[in-house]
């Protein structure tokens, strides 16, 4: 079980060689819980943690069909930022960034959040225009964000070719100093450890195969470990969200598409900020170990497969070399894929459904890891109080019935 990490504890274990304790407890599945959360990614675990910590609701189960972080939460490229396009999005992600800034302290678990700055390159006038729009929205919301010129780009990332030689020369960039990268597995484990210490049960290798509904109300879930009675079910299953919602008879405007990423061999540190190019469909950051992490936009088809493809690797290499020609000798070590649950407006779906007690925290597309803390905090508040918090009121499922879509695409498609 959870023990407090400290410099003294580290020294003591180093000297005594005593093994570290289990970081979260194992329990048998109980016949009933006050809240059942489906999905042991950052969203499910953060929701469980804030339910217990902020509201004292601890009779909670997180049901995970594989292992915690086995979905998108353990496969993403861990970019955290808040420079979105809509006021609703900017405000929401800014709250998450603030929670990330103190997460290591809050969880007593180092999540290695490095605010190295996030730079989105503009290769045409249309991109520059939308970046100016973004900075205005961001500044209004108190978010540090500005448009910079190619000289400033060169200063911040000297290896980028800012001459007029490339096919898509760089005209400027959106610069967001508080953005950066975090260690995704540490975030998942930190929340699991914190939730477990407060009494939450985490059941891995347990799949939800049905949701019981009677008179338009949730009454329980069917799992591979038997039935569980519960009045509240929270769907935190990202790439599988529409399949799980279908079990409760709720249809979601979501398509699932794979998103691939790749990592190179480690080299000496040379790239400080995260660099994104929407026009080239590529982004890159350098980890503390020196590896370069590359990503792109989603595969152009729906699928539940998490296999990498040769098309991705060759396309990625072309785009990276257009941006940083000096990387031509670098070797890619690994590539992988995860599933993304995309909504038509590139904004999430959080809130209640026509089935009472069935709550959604889905539609995270390629950008949901950074939202884990704030979504967990807000969904926990919704479950505890029965009221939709103001910060997530625009993200309800009913916006699609009313035709009030949010339009976050320009800030979310490749930027992650
Ligand atoms: C390659 C890649 C790069 C990305 N980069 C970024 C980035 O830089 N920044 C960012 O913010 N976001 C990024 N994302 C998106 C981000 O990873 C996801 O939006 C986020 O992790 C979703 O978290 P989650 O907890 O909602 O879902 P997940 O972490 O996917 O967890 C859902 C869990 O539900 C479980 N599950 C599904 N069905 C069932 C069932 N029936 N019963 C029980 N369990 C079930 C799954 O096994 C899974 O573990 C990226 C995604 C990918 C794939």
Query: Which structural class fits the helix and strand makeup?
Result: alpha/beta
- What small ligands are held by the chains? flavin-adenine dinucleotide
- The rough form would be described as globular
CATH topology of the largest domain: FAD/NAD(P)-binding domain
Low-confidence stretches: none
- Can you give the helix content as a percent range? 25-40%
The major sheet is characterized as:
8 strands, mixed
What is the gyration radius calculated from CA atoms?
21 Å
The CATH superfamily label of the largest domain reads: FAD/NAD(P)-binding domain
Task: Quickly count the domains.
Answer: 2
Average pLDDT, all residues: 95
Going across the biggest sheet, name each strand in turn.
5-6-4-14-15-16-13-17
Total strands: the figure is: 19
The termini sit apart by 34 Å
